[in-house]
Amino acid sequence: EQAGSDIIMQDMGFGVSQRVELERLKHAREMQVAATIEDMASIKKARVLLALPKENVFARREKKASATVVLTATRGSAITGEEVDAVVDIVASAVQGMEPERVTVTDSNGRLLNSGSQNSVSARARKEYEIERQRESEYQEKIDAILIPVLGIGNYTAQVDVSMDFTAVEQTQRRYNPDLPAVRSEMVVEENSVGSVAAGIPGAISNQPPLDSNIPENAIGNGQVAPVPGRTSKESTRNYELDTTISHTKQQTGVIRRLSVSVAVDYQQTTAEDGTV
To answer: Is 146 domain-assigned?
Structure first.
């Protein structure tokens, strides 16, 4: 590593190509990111390798940047999942265009801490497996805290198996209450017409006033009086709105579906040479 850095950073005098300058800038950024990661208490040494594609405005499909981080933990320390997530965020934030899914993190023992090349399904399955093992370790520590003061170390064996459900379920419901109707809109139309109604064939004759006559206007046969002509119209439209309730439910992921605990106790009593049991 040091030899490669010396070749890139050595003074080549005049005529340095643009590619060498870009490699120097990339190497300087790698050193800065590595120094930032090494500030964490549990990280002794960090090495960062960046793969930055060349910008090309004519390319139909732009290549994405990626990064590889190799971590060495301090003696007596273990790199936790939160610290791995912090390293991924540091690298993704320090490099323009870097996505967290494109960052691969491993330790000095070759253990994969975060994959930047696996698909989302494989990465999620590995993450879920780690969460289950973490829950089992937590329950194991609680069992040890209860049984060690009573039985002593080595006088029992405990195993914990946790099965979790990581299914993401979202549900939207729309409910109507027919007992609480409300008027949304209402339209009422009324028409009243009183008086004679013009009739006949349109023309000059029908538009002339009638001749004088002694016959009453409202008279009909047998001395009866005709009713007064008129027209009445009424229309009513009323729309009701039902009481509506919309609820959106999102169930929590990572729920424990089954928890199995097995404890085997050494019940055989033995007598030591001094007579103690």
So the answer is: yes
Range of the domain at 66: 1-9+17-117
Instruction: Give CA–CA dist 12/10, Å, rounded.
Output: 6
Q: What is the pLDDT of residue 57?
A: 65
What is this structure's pTM? 0.49
Distance CA 26, CA 41 (A): 26
- For 33, phi then psi, to 5°, come to -65, -40
Which domain-ending residue is among 91, 117, 143?
117
The answer to the question of residue 81 being in a domain is: yes
Number of separate helices (H) and strands (E) present in the chain: 4, 8
Choose the final residue of a domain: 65, 86, 117.
117
Give the residue, 248 or 123, on which the prediction is more confident.
248
Domains held by the chain: number: 2
Residue 54 pLDDT > 70, yes or no?
A: yes
Angle at alpha carbon of residue 115, lines to 114 and 118, rounded to 5°: 150
E strands of the chain, at which residues?
43-51, 66-73, 103-107, 112-114, 156-165, 170-194, 230-250, 255-265
Alpha helices in 152-277 (DSSP H): none
